[in-house]
Amino acid sequence: MPIKSCLYFIYDGKKSTDYNISNVNINSGMLEECFLSSRELYEIEIRNNEKPYFQYIKRKPFILTLSFAFNDMWDSNLIDSVAQWLNVDNYKELEFPEVGLIYNCMPVDDMPIIHNALQQGYINLTMRCDSPYAYSPTYLSPLYDTGIQQISELGTNTTTIKLTNHGLQNNDYIINTTRDEKRKITVVDINTVSVSSVTNQVANDVIFKYPNINSKNIVFENIGSIICHPEISINKIGDGILKITNLSNSGDEFLFSSGTNATGNLTFSGTVSDGEIIVVGADGYEFDSDNVKSANKFKVDISSNTIASKNTLVMKINPANGDSITIDTVSYKFKTALDEPYSIKIGAGVTNTIDNLISAINGSTGAGTKYYSTITAHTKVSATLEGTNNIIITAKTPGSLGNTIITTSIFTNYNNRFESTTLLLGQDCSADNAINALISSINTNKTIPITVQKNNNIIIFTYVNPGNVGNVITSSTTRNALWDSSTLTGGNDNLLDGENIYVNCERQEIISDIPNTYRISIFNDNYIGFPKGVNNLVIEGNCKIQFRYKFKILQR
User: pTM for the complete prediction?
Assistant: First the structure.
């Protein structure tokens, strides 16, 4: 397809005839043109190895050497117009309509004008292309409609309908467009279906439609030299997938998948304590071992899997006046008279004094008689009697935090004493028990549509509804439980009804007409191409679709 045999051309949308210029060959004899673009081999040479290692081939852009002759004498205005025409700063289309070839190119190097001093002559110029290919003109396919098919009005009773090549199957449905109701169908034969009745339908009051179950089949022929990557314009009908399969290219698939569900992992690395909180979306879950929790959080009951800290106060002898004990920051003083705050009445015997102390710690009956009137129940511990002379001090909140509660005593008689300087043996809930308790609470209390699944020490959260709506916030105050992200992630919307999508498979671009919406996350990253020859395409998913394309030509 020689271009030097073409007299006329179009550059940057302007015809050569508008400037009274022709594409000419100045040399005598046969015409010489480049058949294929030049190629450069990239290889790696290794010392002491005479044979290099081949890496790849790089095809270089076409270089066109042309001569444009003025058909008549020029004047200064024409010369100025031609100079402005050819003085471009970007690649422009150079088209030779006689052979149907287009090059994206621009002039480079010097551009001499050869003339006879009588305002006659020609211009020699070198055009550099942006690729090693020539192109065909741009073609636009028909607008293919794979969407909803309309059928006749229906009455109130079960109705038999004639549909040509309906492609439906048993238990498929048609849609009442007035009330968005569905009717299941039963296939009678290839052209007939039986339709179930719909409650309260009035005869002939609505139009019904049904999805075109048969995929749209398209035959596309690439008459170029190599694979063609089209531009695709899509108007989606209904939510859901869109898939183009090239049956002639090993089933190559171009796919916008269904919306994806947001997920997140909560990993437990150790024990859990009372009051620690997990948040997912609008729901907060609080681990609770003492039956006291925040008002706006769901309870995660770990009381049966948590051990409270304890210490034993041994009192064998009635305390002397002025003896004292301290639990955390509260000090109790044994007195013969209740004459100062936090004083405990020394009874007639040690048993009476023990009872008075237990009543004071627990805030039970006896204020003003057994203990000083302003004493209230200890906020962190409770007290019980074990045997005759042992007072068991127990942390109110089970868990290891109780092990930090300090206990000290000052007794005249050494037989009265705490067994240790702090409460001991408090244990937090194990990770495994905490996971089980949290899953149980979520399944009972959740207000957002999520599912949870245990995988060893990880809880996998999945938002039930696909789409961006599932990318809800997550947080944790639990020292040994961390989210993998500050939100559930990966939730992406379907292509939506009425959405327009533009895909440039050559430049690998996807643009949606919905603001701030990016569809790459539901795309399979396979920008479809049509190899040379016949391509049998199958389009699945309701849409209107159109292809814009041009063929690539290897030979110049």
Answer: 0.63
